[in-house]
Write a sequence for this structure.
């Protein structure tokens, strides 16, 4: 009998849409159960093939400030040696700007990945996941922050290309009424897209 191949290790680093925030449970409070959170669905689907770790925090931005970098460094240290680092950030950076600026978010991701490479090491692959499209409809103020045009995703794709990273677009997914957070169906769809990427990667 052939020896069993050891599980590969990955870390998914994200914000509230990776944490699994359920906005219906009130401000800053609730979280979907594991079977409705995309990283946990992915981990279950790939059990025995990939060991998927998750470090997610509501409100997290792309690391740039020193305390953010320390948070990221601690997450990498806890995870230890890994085969793949996946990051899905940018939503909070985009929404915190006084005006919509996808290019600013991409530049911040460029700087983060350039620095992260030194910490992750040359043997760790990197996957950039463009966050789900924001959809605020015709809201008088927030409507201008909608990303349904896909421009933020295209900026993230160019960033991944510059950094030699793989790219996955979360894209248009079912959102809660707040226009930001995924519904459970959105989590399931995103998990399926991520699973397809992981399985294709294994065939290369």
């Amino acid at each position: 009998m052939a020896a069993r191949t050891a599980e590969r290790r990955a870390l998914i680093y994200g914000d509230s849409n990776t944490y699994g925030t359920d906005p219906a449970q009130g401000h800053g409070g609730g979280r979907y159960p594991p079977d409705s959170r995309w990283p946990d669905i992915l981990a279950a689907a790939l059990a025995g093939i990939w060991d998927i770790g998750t470090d997610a925090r509501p409100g997290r931005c792309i690391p740039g400030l020193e305390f953010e970098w320390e948070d990221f460094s601690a997450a990498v240290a806890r995870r230890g040696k890994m085969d793949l680092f996946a990051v899905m950030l940018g939503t909070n950076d985009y929404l915190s700007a006084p005006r919509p600026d996808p290019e600013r978010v991409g530049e911040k991701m460029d700087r983060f990945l350039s620095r992260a490479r030194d910490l992750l090491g040359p043997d760790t692959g990197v996957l950039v996941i463009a966050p789900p499209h924001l959809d605020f409809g015709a809201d008088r103020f927030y409507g201008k922050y909608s990303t349904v045009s896909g421009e933020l995703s295209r900026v993230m794709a160019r960033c991944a290309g510059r950094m030699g990273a793989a790219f996955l677009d979360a894209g248009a997914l079912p959102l809660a009424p707040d226009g930001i957070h995924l519904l459970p169906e959105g989590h399931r769809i995103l998990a399926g897209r991520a699973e397809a990427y992981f399985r294709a990667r294994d065939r290369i």
Notes: DSSP finds seven helices and five strands in the chain.
